[in-house]
């Protein structure tokens, strides 16, 4: 099992041999552009998890976009076009990062205004504000309605941005592209500010927000709720979190609680090994979670096939002292990848119920970033998942057992209807006593391996 966990960690985090980035101010020459483009073209064609490339005529798409990319007026436009090639697959995990975005990724930083927004009842509403951001400093709060963006009606701007967003796994995944453009600007943009008109409490006000690089600080916290139920929050499956506080330690003071809320909202994923460790905390014995699916049905390898970095079975450890109470998992449209694996596995095995809104639908696995000439990077999917008792999550998402719509009035009042619904559900589930996993031995037909489309 230790080898399996190491393998899963490698699937998520390993990169390939480094390629020297360009010096500051330098530009890609024609040969470097061609090499970067052709590396992406060949790697995806030969190693993508689905040998049918999701029904896309990959070579035709590459032939169409290659002349445009090589003739792009700027390097940023080149990287944007190269990413558009990977977007043809409609896969949130398969993308090209420009050197600028790659550098931020390595530094665990994001260029942002600090805003999370969503459309609610015909309005574009602020649903979250990042700590330390200019949006927080200027007093923006969840529940504020955005009336105008850069002088345009907010919904017109938002719908146009969504329409232009890169093709991805689901419409919910495309929200990320729109949010990135709102927060970081267009590709290659040097404009540091954005004008927003807001409405709250019947009052209109204008803000000029400034973009800034903020650290991506993952959060893991645990507490007892006033109801007496436990609460565990994970904003990402980041191995650094587990190094500081192992999951077993985080759950230690909650083991006597009659119910447990696992909050995976806005958790975009991370280490599959950490996700498996969390599952292990909830089962008294080894449980078959599902299968890892690769292009040829064989384990992924490195070192010219001499070293396996995955098995094909996904299982929990045995656990002598698991948490045995009722469990509810919170998800939303920002829950993706490893967080979807946890939610879907617990739901499919009958170990938990899910509350919130349908998740991203972005459950594939990458082996690591491949660095490209000039400092860019390629990410592409090499693993799919067939989970016990669950339909395929990629392209669908985890559908909650209890759906809770976004509500502007609740946001303005500082309420958390998702958590309220989870606590109410736990009260009913905890009264039934301990919950055991379903005695499944193989993935259900609905979770069959990826088929060519």
UniProtKB/TrEMBL annotation:
UniProt keyword list: Signal
| Range of residues in the leader sequence | 1-20
Please tell me whether the keyword Signal is annotated for this protein.
yes
Q: Which InterPro entries has this protein been placed in?
A: ClpP/crotonase-like_dom_sf, PDZ, PDZ_sf, Tail-specific_protease, Tricorn_C1
The segments labelled Disordered in the record are: 169-191
Q: Where is the PDZ domain?
A: 106-155
Keyword presence, Hydrolase: no
Q: What is this protein called?
A: S41 family peptidase
Origin organism is Pelomonas margarita
Lineage here is: Bacteria, Pseudomonadati, Pseudomonadota, Betaproteobacteria, Burkholderiales
């Amino acid at each position: 099992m230790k080898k399996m966990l190491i393998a899963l960690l490698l699937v998520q985090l390993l990169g390939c041999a480094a390629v020297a980035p360009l010096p500051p101010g330098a530009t890609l020459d024609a040969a470097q552009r061609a090499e970067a483009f052709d590396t992406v073209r060949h790697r995806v064609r030969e190693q993508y998890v689905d040998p049918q490339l999701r029904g896309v005529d990959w070579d035709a798409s590459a032939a169409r976009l290659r002349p445009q990319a090589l003739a792009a007026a700027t390097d940023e436009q080149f990287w944007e076009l190269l990413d558009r090639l990977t977007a043809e697959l409609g896969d949130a995990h398969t993308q090209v990062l420009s050197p600028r975005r790659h550098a931020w990724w390595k530094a665990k930083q994001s260029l942002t205004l600090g805003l999370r927004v969503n459309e609610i009842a015909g309005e574009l509403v602020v649903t979250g504000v990042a700590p330390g951001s200019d949006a927080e400093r200027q007093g923006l709060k969840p529940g504020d309605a955005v009336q105008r963006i850069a002088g345009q009606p907010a919904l017109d701007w938002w719908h146009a941005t969504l329409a232009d967003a890169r093709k991805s796994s689901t419409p919910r995944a495309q929200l990320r592209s729109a949010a990135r453009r709102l927060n970081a600007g267009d590709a290659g943009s040097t404009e540091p500010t954005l004008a927003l008109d807001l409405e709250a409490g019947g009052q209109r006000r204008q803000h000029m927000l400034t973009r800034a690089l903020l650290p991506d600080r993952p959060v893991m916290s645990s507490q007892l709720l006033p109801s007496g139920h436990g609460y565990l929050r994970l904003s990402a499956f980041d191995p650094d979190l587990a190094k500081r506080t192992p999951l077993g330690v985080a759950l230690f003071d909650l083991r006597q609680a009659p119910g447990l809320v696992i909050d995976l909202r806005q958790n975009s994923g991370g280490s599959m090994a950490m996700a498996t460790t969390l599952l292990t905390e909830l089962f008294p014995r080894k449980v078959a979670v599902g299968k890892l699916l690769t292009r040829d049905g064989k384990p992924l390898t490195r070192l010219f096939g001499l070293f396996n970095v995955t098995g094909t079975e996904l299982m929990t450890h045995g656990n002598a002292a698991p948490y045995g109470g009722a469990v509810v998992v919170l998800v939303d449209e920002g829950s993706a990848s490893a967080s979807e694996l946890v939610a879907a596995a617990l739901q499919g095995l009958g170990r938990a119920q899910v509350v919130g809104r349908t998740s991203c639908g972005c459950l594939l696995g990458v082996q690591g970033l491949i660095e490209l000439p000039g400092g860019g990077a390629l990410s592409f999917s090499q693993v799919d998942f067939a989970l016990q008792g669950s339909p395929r999550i990629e392209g669908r998402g985890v559908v909650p057992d209890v759906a809770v719509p976004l509500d502007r009035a609740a946001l303005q009042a500082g309420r958390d209807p998702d958590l309220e619904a989870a606590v109410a559900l736990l009260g009913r589930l905890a009264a039934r006593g301990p919950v055991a996993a379903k005695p499944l031995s193989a993935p259900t037909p609905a979770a069959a391996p990826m088929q060519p489309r």
